[in-house]
Prior knowledge:
Two copies of one chain form a homodimer. Chain A is α+β, with helices and mostly antiparallel strands. The first copy, chain A, has helices at residues 6-13, 17-29, 44-55, 74-92, 97-105, 140-158, 171-178, 203-206, 231-256; strands at residues 68-71, 116-123, 161-166, 184-194, 219-221. Chain A has two domains: 29-211, NADH Oxidase (3-Layer(aba) Sandwich), CATH 3.40.109.10; 212-257. Chain A contains nine helices and five strands. A four-stranded antiparallel beta sheet of chain A has the order 1-2-4-3, sandwiched between helices. Chain A is globular, with a radius of gyration of 21 Å. Residues 252-257 of chain A have low confidence and may be disordered. Chains A and B meet through helix 1, helix 2, helix 3, strand 1 and helix 4 of A and helix 1, helix 2, helix 3, strand 1 and helix 4 of B. Strand 1 (68-71) of chain A pairs parallel with strand 5 (219-221) of chain B.
Amino acid sequence: MKTMPAQAIQETHAFADEARDAVYRAIFSRRDVRGQFLPTPVPDEVLSRVLTAAHYAPSVGFMQPWNFLVVQSDQVKRRVHDAFAVAHAEAGDMFEGDKRAVYRTLKLEGILESPLGICITCDRERSGPVVVGRTHMKTMDLYSSVCAVQNLWLAARAEGLGVGWVSIFNQAELQEALGIPKRITPIAYLCVGYVSHFHAKPELESAGWLPRLPMEDLVYFNQWGHRDDQQSLIGHLRRDQAAAQEAGTANLSAAAK
Amino acid sequence: MKTMPAQAIQETHAFADEARDAVYRAIFSRRDVRGQFLPTPVPDEVLSRVLTAAHYAPSVGFMQPWNFLVVQSDQVKRRVHDAFAVAHAEAGDMFEGDKRAVYRTLKLEGILESPLGICITCDRERSGPVVVGRTHMKTMDLYSSVCAVQNLWLAARAEGLGVGWVSIFNQAELQEALGIPKRITPIAYLCVGYVSHFHAKPELESAGWLPRLPMEDLVYFNQWGHRDDQQSLIGHLRRDQAAAQEAGTANLSAAAK
């Protein structure tokens, strides 16, 4: 049997360098946007593309458990914002000491300013009680809808759209604001729109809330906690993380041009 | 105040067409790979890039709850496969009638054939008991680790690497096979490696298990179940879904060249 050399295999299915770099650029320059939304309308053709990207996420047993509830009405956005405000006030009280004061200064959503809200949901009963791949991990359908969120987020970045995931809601109140039945699980309420700028770093990193963890501390080999003598990989991880941090900054510089 | 026209805003932050198309190509040609793995080793520099892509996923409160357990040992892969085999036999019994027979013919994993396994986990206590954005939706940390899975998956596609998510495990058995402590939640066991080919469509779609749902049936406006007269958007959704289906086929043709 003829076998292909490694290099040839890679070249058969790998993207060309420029295309591959575009995928990484979307990944490294994606941000959770809260405060930079512009009122500029999002054209239907752009909205359609990012929704289609979400629909082509992986799903357990191909159940495609998601719906996409697009919010354009100011009145509905106001109801969603009211639900956020209640939960946000409750959340502030949960932090202790300095963190409580800092928490209250954080801008955590752009519900009213963003031209679009998109609620991505999970219908856990979509394809019957027994689902291929969900027989043991019952949360796999929820995870499928999360993959749809991430697809939409990366497609949006490539389109120049900012996305912010708002998760500070009492679930029943968000459902009520959007008329979502109890049997449907809301996964993400996303604020979507064009932005004045993308931040170079996640805002919680810039604010000193938490640092970006070093990649090399997060990787184990073969067993939990084991760190083999993998100096080549560790070296690459250090360089790639430095490059990923710079990619955010480069993105900001490009935007400022 | 001077405002920028919509077109200019878009052009400021949107990727150039070729780069944007590369992101969509990754999204539409990504597959859950089970049966096409090649033994070709994955270079450290490629592994490092896809892990770094995972680490730059969004995370609630910037908690970065993930670890990446890289499995290269045949002995450990065998233990993981043993755990799969137990759960897979249990799963078969859960389906009724024809579905049971079909289920048993499905190839659902490439644990032993793929050169790498990568288990992505979630440490729910990583940044203390109170996390920004997880005060109300307690599953947000799990969802962050899922976003890391999807980032890795798309980066892998751009690198020409196949990824298959295996979820048919009793969680405790997977943890035992990999030495993962009880307090850590395994999110995904991924089989990773170069592939002979990517399928044009998801295998469960080709097998007639379930059809791809029409996008237009999944989108609501402002309230659950509401379908406004949004003919422009619906037209775009139909065209984009047709194009996304073709993108998979185009990908196959390119591979066959």
